[in-house]
Prior knowledge:
The chain is built from 2 helices and 17 strands. It has 3 domains: 1-39, no CATH class; 43-173; 181-250, no CATH class.
Amino acid sequence: MFGEGYxxxxxxxxxxxxxxxxPDNGQQIKKYYRVKIKEPxxxxxxxxxxxxLKAQDGSAISYTRWISGQQEGTQNxxxxxxxxxxxxxxxxxxxxxxxGGSRTEPGEDVMAFQGRYxxxxxxxxxxxxxIKNTLFADGYTADYSKGISFSxxxxxxxxxxxxxxxxMVRTERYVNSGAYATFTGVLTADGTEVPSYILTPQLHxxxxxxxYTIFVSGQAGEPELPVDLSALALQYRIAxxxxxxxxxxxxxxxxxxxxxxxxxxxx
Length: 267
């Protein structure tokens, strides 16, 4: 150890050493060491993420931002724009690069492309341009309403510790957390009103939370006639900017299409 050194594999948990100076029955000095090789820390390469969304003239806009978990390696960023900012309009998105906990300029080892790619080589082979200087400076201007993906790499493809980022960024309308849906009536497929009584969860059904119960009966004047539950349309009021979906299909702002309520239906 104190001559040519101790040769061993120091990766993983490393190697433990015990050093004693002096006899066991005297004023012995004991020293314990563990020596290991530190694996390269990918965080030393820095990190990137979408930052501020602005109008094309650089002015601030009002929005809330939602970040959802990764799906197939892609991080989803949703910017919910508040009125009066339109959704289908170009906006400028700037990315931020941080290293050592501080915001700084990305180095030459950072490459960024619009689109989803597994490597820098794949992006370049597809003819994608390196837009790093745009993303991290003035920002990338586009209509994000349909969603735009970005692939960013820190380090070359040959680097085993290369960091890869894939982001999907989109804009949508902000809906206040107090958004509501109030059901006001039931119609047959031909538009005839069906007598009904609606139990609203706020007044009657606290156990079921947001489950609505709607009682329907035969048509006015003909109560003995059964109601066809396989084709009923709902009338409702929804909050400004909200959308109504039935079994995953978006409906109109005031009335749904005829729905089959003879089976389970999710709104």
